[in-house]
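Re: the request from the purification team.
They wanted to know what the chain is likely to look like in 3D before they choose a buffer screen. I agreed to run a prediction and write the result into the notebook, where they can find it.
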Amino acid sequence: MRILLWHVHGAWTTAFVQGEHQYVVPVTADRGPDGLGLARTYAWPDNVTEVPLESLPEHEFDAVIYQRPHELDLLAPAGRAFYVEHNAPQGPIAGMRHPMADRDDLTLVHVTHFNALFWDAGATETRVIEHGIVDPGPRYRGDIPRAAVVINEARRRGRVTGTDLLEHFEPYDLFGLDAPALGGRDLAQAELHDAIARRRVYVHPIRWTSLGLSLLEAMHLAMPVIVLGTTEAWEAVPPEAGAISTRVDVLEATLHRLLQDPDEARARGELARAHVLTRYGLGRFLDEWDALLAPAGVRR
């Protein structure tokens, strides 16, 4: 199949384009938000190509993947169309109506069951396909007795990402987009994996997001994880992988214990990796997408 999608979320797209289809991403001269084109900090296969954004109506696609409401204005849905919702809804629960609610020209695909539960999609056909991760391998070393935290735009997002909680998880190193402003490091994905795998524990202080892919990547690296137990986290993380709780004091105490006990930290990291390979493996993710993308009556 020839599939169009915008390069919006680098980690999710990196997994999605590992399939056996031809993937097309729009590009603009300035490589702005609607035309980032090919990834520069992620490893994508050769079956991903670029087309100029303005030429989209001249091309034919077997399926289109939308991820932001305004993308439907850039190319109207026709044929097999899907809208992937990456985010948890914001605001009072009674008003959490999805922008794609009550449509009959696309299928709404949530990346977590939490999102599907909280968003009101009305009569729109809805599916859940949980994340899949390109396995970076068990790189965990844990030789630096500090916590690793990955938050993109930590200062701007504030309480949503638990930036205000970081003082409870000292000593830590902050990574992610714009992290240098908070004394952290901003690295490409491969470098990031190597860097955080040297830290003894991964801390995920996120209050309200869908499900951080950096958390699942850390578990793939065989890192023990300390996780704030909100949104989809309880589904994704078994307690034996480290700790998961809404009590910051419990997370803080477990972090300090693991920082002081590298053997326990390593053992819990191995449990984290075994779990995430089964629940969020790339093969399962691609198989579920292939089943959804296939026209009615057609099987891969």
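For the purification team: Residues 2-132+282-293 form one domain.
Please add any questions underneath this entry.
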